[in-house]
Amino acid sequence: MKKDRNSPQSNHTDFSLPRSNILRGKKNFQRLFEKSTVLNSDSIQFRYRIYPDSSEGCLIGFAAPKKKFPKAVQRNKAKRLLREVYRHQQAHLRDLFDQQTFGLHGLFLANNPDLSFKSIEDDMIPMLIKTRERLLRTKFKSGLNDHSITKDIK
User: 40-78 burial string, b = 16+ CB within 10 Å, else e?
Assistant: First the structure.
């Protein structure tokens, strides 16, 4: 017997990642690189910036630099893997934006050409948890100050 996805008893979690939730535009990337908090691991880097204005929303970008990934096929694969892992793990951040009290722009950068789904997932989950903790702390402060900090996650 098939389960009805629309029934209220269904605990169907939404794993979609619509285009409206992906960081786009030169201006957004420039603002992110000018002043952002950076978390590093062996295979990926996560840059994010918190905005006091809730209209900024929660936008996440995915990139693979041409210097480390010389072929377009490699860059596209790396970005596809980053998107897929984030799509599965986005619940770490998404529920914080239900109240719409602040905005977040983030960018996942691939650092290692030998990426696998598992290695990205192992590095991304601690980054998302750490970002969530910082957002919860920042949320209750009077002013949303954004400082450029570099942290290594091992």
Answer: bbebbbbbbbbeeeeebbbbbbbbbeeeebeeeebbebb
Q: Where do we find the tokens 């794993």?
A: 15
Tell me how far apart the alpha carbons of residues 17 and 58 are, in angstroms, rounded to a whole number. 12
Phi, psi of 62 (to 5 degrees): -140, 130
What strands, in cross-sheet order, belong to the sheet with 58-63? 58-63, 103-110, 44-51, 37-40, 150-152
Q: Which of 132, 121, 106, 98 is nearest to 43 (CA)?
A: 121
Q: What angle do CA 144, 148, 145 make, to 5 degrees?
A: 10
Query: Which residues does the chain have with pLDDT short of 50?
Result: 1, 7-10, 142-151, 154
